[in-house]
């Protein structure tokens, strides 16, 4: 190492410490303040970052029972699908598959319930059916199953028969 440079390094380092002491520059960032800056305690954030409001909140408080709300929803249409997303915009491959299968059976009018909008409904439907996965399909208030069962029934022809016998589709409706 250059002897002149070796003598200058301690001076430079000493000057940096002296400047730091005079300006009171923190040696380390204060991570506690950084952590606190990410928490949002009030509701003044942008709409895109707010928690989705519970769609069923008012009904749920009125009835006092999520199971009653689910039973009402299931009874509202001949075919009801509790799914991730909506029939026009499924947000999961399994939900999209169920929607396609129902459409291939000629079913145009069925109710899709987006479980991503409300955790109460999402967990409630799993308890209601004692079935751990989403989507969940109901035909005339009867739980049929999820994606794998729907796919199997579609491939074997059982789904078409079930929908015809239930009066959901006409006997002349043909799978596409």
Automatic annotation (TrEMBL):
Domain of life where this protein originates = Eukaryota
Q: Which GO terms describe its molecular function?
A: 2 iron, 2 sulfur cluster binding; metal ion binding
Annotated CDD domains? GRX_PICOT_like (cd03028)
Q: Please give the PROSITE patterns that the UniProt record associates with this protein.
A: GLUTAREDOXIN_2 (PS51354)
Which Pfam families has this protein been placed in? Glutaredoxin
Under the heading InterPro entries, the entry gives: Glutaredoxin (IPR002109), GRX_PICOT-like (IPR033658), Monothiol_GRX-rel (IPR004480), Thioredoxin-like_sf (IPR036249)
Give the Glutaredoxin domain ranges: 79-144
Q: Which PANTHER family match?
A: GLUTAREDOXIN FAMILY MEMBER, GLUTAREDOXIN-RELATED PROTEIN 5, MITOCHONDRIAL
Query: What is the protein name given in its UniProt record?
Result: Monothiol glutaredoxin-5, mitochondrial
Q: Which organism is it from?
A: Planoprotostelium fungivorum
